[in-house]
Amino acid sequence: MTSSVQLSPLDLGNHTVQTPVVLSPMAGVTNWPFRMLCREFGPDGLYVAEMITARALVARNPKALRLCQFDPSEKYRSLQLYGVNPSIVEQAARIVVDENMADHIDLNFGCPVPKVTRKGGGSALPWKNDLFRDVLHKVVSVASPAGIPVTAKIRVGIDDDHTTFHDAAMIAQEEGCKAVTLHARTTAQYYGGHSEWEKISALVEELDIPVIGNGDIWTAEDAVEMVRETGCAGVAIGRGCQGRPWLFGDIANAFAGSSERINPTLGQVGDIIVRHAQLLTAFYEGDEMMAVHDLRKHVAWYLKGFPVGGGTRAAFMKCESVADVEAEVAKFDREVEFPMAIADKPRGRVRFAKKVHLPYGWLDSRAMTHEEREDMFADDPMDASY
Hints:
Helices cover 39% and strands 13% of the residues. By secondary structure, the chain is α/β, with parallel strands linked by helices. Its EC number is 1.3.1.-.
């Protein structure tokens, strides 16, 4: 099936994203080795590094600095920052600008993970309109004079009774963001159920800046359908590409009007696994053990649906070197075809959150008093851990 749906180029500051297909930042996933694999299959899109905690960057945490690395082939370096304290996020943005770390800054207001929201961060933060505006204003004020565009990633809200996306998107536009990405779920929905694409449509109608849609894109056809239904300017891919970096190639073909799809055999997937291990070794500066340990979660995704058996999966979990990985891949039956039965099925986390974790009294007001800010930030320990 071909598509008549087209995506127009997206202007982000001094750079034009020719095909606005976005690799969403995912913690522990979108370091430069995985971004490289996605880019090699995909279009001239936007491939965003995994979330960097502003406080950790300010404290020069070694892991944070490693996550800020880009491969020389990445001509447009896209970095996502997360923080709650506006002054700390501002300092982190200043480091990014002064040290020429990135060409684009995305701000994370979409993370639903309890350890983030219980501090008022991620998808909890837009509930406080003034705090949300303050973070955006400070980062845009630092980044804009340097020609670095700022975008914001948001969710629909905390739950169905506490939605924030209308206000948050408008504030982002007013404060100079170049685009907004909406993950069309609430915090309470976590990654469960189906995202509410009609919320994306609503923002497209309301805003003058581009809206990028996110949520439940498992196939190229899903990406085309999201654009068709919502009119969004681009699509962001998260869990759908876990273990399937070639999904970006499928999406590129779909928007080019081609019905060609990439359905790799088990042998071809094995080749990608080995290449991923090699790239991770470079990322970890030659430490093969760290590389193959990082690879483990990816292997589980790569092999999903293939009839390889529990023994094979367990063997990969015991690998300690690239040679070990190569030895296991060599045992594959290279001609086994990709399991199309799971091609359009959800991947990664799909559960609902049992409870939304928020700071005490967070929902009592849409604004923060001076005293509340003092309580939250004045005696703020420099916790720069990951």
